[in-house]
Amino acid sequence: MTERLDKIEDSLKGVKEQIRGCERRLDEAEQRVSNTEDNGARADRLLTYMIRKQRCLEAHCEDIENRSRRSNLRIYGVKEGAEGGENMLDFTARLLKVALKLPDNDDLAIERAHRSLAAKPINTNISRSIVVKFLHFQTKQRILYKGWNTKELQFEGSRITLDHDYSTALQRRRKEYGEIKRQLKERNIRFRSSYPAVLRVTLDGGEKSFNSAWEAADQLKHLGITAKLSEAELMEKELHRRGWTAPLHGFTNE
């Protein structure tokens, strides 16, 4: 009987030792899990910080680029090859004077003018824009606003439009609103765009501003407005959900 009890006691000691071993391993596993979670949280904060720094640098570079274009404007709709063999500076000055009905002695002080650097289109119905750099910012503004206030600009049978010379990044941000604008127009809802890439929509007698396409899509979904967002817009939306507001990008007119 005593021998059996000794065997049982030895077995219990072994079981207890195994349990203690399991407890130690469990404690170690819990500690490793806790360390992993802490490291993950730190990595997440660091990633958000790095993205924010990157976005700030991008915004700064974009602002510098757009400021360097302050004296530029783009002319859209001029038929490809309309300049013929004429000097591009002379052609552009003549184009603007004809379309805007400016006096012949109006010195526009155009410093440079050229077609956009995209490849020449094969389709003759498509034309590259003309980039014009004025010597004076005030002249560019005068020409641009006169163009905007003219009901319809015509040159040699083509309807042309004038606009700022935005950076590629800012053009992309403004185009993000394209689908939303189309749907607003279909619903006869008034809207307008302003710098740098802000959509202003008139609702219930008041005006609401949106700084991004994802924000506009979210706030206007009760009107049935939908939009397919780019990967960049979805990332910005996720960052905003985490409590971070991205800096505004793009053109300033200061």
TrEMBL record:
Keyword Ribonucleoprotein: no
Coiled coil ranges: 5-46
Alphabetical keyword list: Coiled coil
Endpoints of the signal sequence: none
Protein name, UniProt field: L1 transposable element RRM domain-containing protein
